[in-house]
């Protein structure tokens, strides 16, 4: 067994992880006298152990997985790493911090890989770009991509540990909640190519300000080797104005044409991205934000050697990930489900995109979390924006309804078009009215609000 939320086996295809021996890992951890058995996989879940695995017993919020080390060894693990409370024994290494040891394992695998490692970061869009890139590259290259949003000190090493001897490309997603985390993750992953998707007020509780966010994300650029390719979203004003280190080869990519920017033709058929020599990528993405993310993924795939014909063929099947711009129609109402996460930048783009649509337009918005002391200001600004674009109906769900309403009213929003509710349960009656009018309804908020539950059947007691 393993504590909830820490599960997962990290080994690659049959043949195993890039070759490591127990003694290699031991020396990297400052331990001597360990065996020379070959390690063929990594797991942080004792239930998923395969013979030859290294088991890293992480300490979770509910329990310490060190107590499952005997189970892992019995299942065939050749080596186990646990914290100070672990029981000593053959094949067991006791360390102060198993999470640090997990990073060490990932770094050892990375040190034995000579192919390109793509690092993707940004305040928004990094997971979407990563998943789009997977669709474009994986059919044509032996590539390793993060599972889910594995973008932290557990997820990045686990991604690296899935590389095998025949891996051609590795992609890592780099997230952060506090200053210094991107740099530390880059020390583990050592990316050879970088992607910056967007900069905005996200995770301000740990990063302090948008300037702090930018500096933290630029740690990826500072970690790149001399002459490395850096793909940057040129449509993002913070990135356009950023002082980028001079040792990298910057490729500006966006939908808005400008000198030095790789952009698609302004005059093009809807939901198409012309590539080259008559090759056109036709897609079904419903928002400009998603189309931009796809265009960025196209440029990364090109840099990785995938030709335009292959990109167009693979890209045609790309659809939004669940709750990340997902579009669903029920009756005469089209719902845009963009409620996996939210910050002021992504919220602004989503609202502006909604405003371009024809017919009735309604928004169900909710709290943007992790904004720290600036939360009220950003929610007030959001209310102002919503008033300015003149939506037909607005329902706000969450604790920040008061500053949102203040901004909305101050900017001339129609009071009878706005309703506030403290949570999803109390918002259900109002939502039923919003959805009954047809047209397009946007649902967007931070993950903790769980706005998608409004589309689920109402729970009943008993």
Keywords:
single chain, 462 residues, alpha/beta, Udp-n-acetylmuramoylalanyl-d-glutamate--2,6- Diaminopimelate Ligase, Chain: A, domain 1, UDP-N-acetylmuramoyl-L-alanine:D-glutamate ligase, Protein-Tyrosine Phosphatase, Chain A, six-stranded mixed beta sheet, 15 helices
Instruction: Tell me what the CATH architecture of the largest domain is.
Output: 3-Layer(aba) Sandwich
Could you list the spans in which at least 5 consecutive residues all have pLDDT below 50? 1-7
Question: What's the β-strand tally?
Answer: 21
Query: What is the count of distinct domains?
Result: 3
| Helical coverage, percent range | 25-40%
* Sequence of strands across the biggest β-sheet: 8-9-7-10-11-12-13
Could you report the average pLDDT, rounded to the nearest whole number? Answer: 93
- Main sheet, how many strands, which sense, barrel? 7 strands, parallel
The CATH superfamily of the largest domain is: Mur-like, catalytic domain
Structural class: alpha/beta
Text of the CATH class of the largest domain: Alpha Beta
């Amino acid at each position: 067994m393993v504590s909830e939320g820490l599960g997962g086996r990290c080994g690659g295809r049959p043949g195993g992880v890039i070759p490591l021996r127990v003694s290699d890992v031991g020396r990297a951890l400052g331990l001597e006298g360990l065996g020379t058995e070959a390690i063929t996989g990594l797991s942080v879940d004792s239930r998923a152990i395969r013979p030859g695995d290294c088991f890293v017993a992480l300490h979770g919020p509910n329990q310490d997985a060190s107590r499952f080390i005997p189970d892992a060894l019995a299942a065939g693990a050749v080596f186990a790493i646990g914290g100070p409370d672990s029981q000593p024994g053959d094949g067991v290494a006791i360390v102060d911090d198993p999470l640090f040891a997990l990073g060490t394992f990932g770094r050892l695998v990375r040190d034995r890989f000579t192919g390109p490692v793509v690092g993707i970061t940004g305040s928004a869009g990094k997971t979407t770009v990563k998943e789009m890139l997977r669709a474009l590259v994986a059919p044509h290259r032996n590539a390793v991509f993060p599972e889910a949003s594995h973008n932290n000190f557990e997820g990045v090493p686990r991604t690296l540990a899935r590389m095998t001897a025949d891996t051609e490309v590795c992609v890592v997603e780099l997230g952060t909640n506090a200053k210094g985390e991107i740099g530390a993750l880059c020390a583990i992953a050592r990316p050879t190519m970088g992607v910056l998707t967007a900069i905005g007020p996200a995770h301000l509780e740990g990063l302090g300000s948008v300037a702090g966010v930018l500096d933290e994300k630029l740690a990826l650029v500072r970690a790149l080797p001399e002459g490395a390719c850096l793909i940057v979203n040129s449509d993002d004003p913070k990135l356009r104005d950023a002082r980028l280190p001079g040792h990298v080869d910057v490729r500006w990519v966006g939908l808005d044409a400008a000198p030095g920017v790789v952009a698609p033709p302004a005059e093009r058929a809807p939901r198409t991205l012309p590539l080259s020599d008559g090759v056109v990528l036709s897609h079904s993405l419903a928002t400009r934000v998603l189309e931009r993310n796809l265009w960025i993924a196209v440029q990364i795939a090109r840099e990785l050697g995938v030709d335009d014909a292959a990109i167009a063929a693979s890209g045609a099947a790309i659809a939004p990930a669940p709750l990340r711009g997902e579009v669903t129609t029920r009756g005469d109402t089209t719902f845009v489900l963009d409620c996996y996460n939210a910050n002021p930048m992504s919220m602004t783009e989503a609202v502006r995109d909604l405003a371009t649509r024809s017919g009735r337009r309604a928004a169900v918005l909710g709290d943007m979390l992790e904004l720290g002391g600036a939360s009220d200001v950003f929610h007030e600004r959001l209310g102002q924006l919503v008033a300015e674009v003149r939506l037909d109906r607005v329902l706000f769900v969450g604790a920040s309804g008061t500053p949102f309403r203040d901004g909305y009213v101050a900017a001339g929003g129609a009071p009878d078009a706005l309703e506030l509710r403290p949570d999803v349960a109390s918002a259900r009656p109002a939502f039923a009215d919003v959805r009954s009018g047809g047209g397009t309804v946007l649902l967007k908020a931070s993950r903790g609000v769980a706005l998608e539950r409004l589309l689920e059947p109402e729970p009943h007691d008993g």
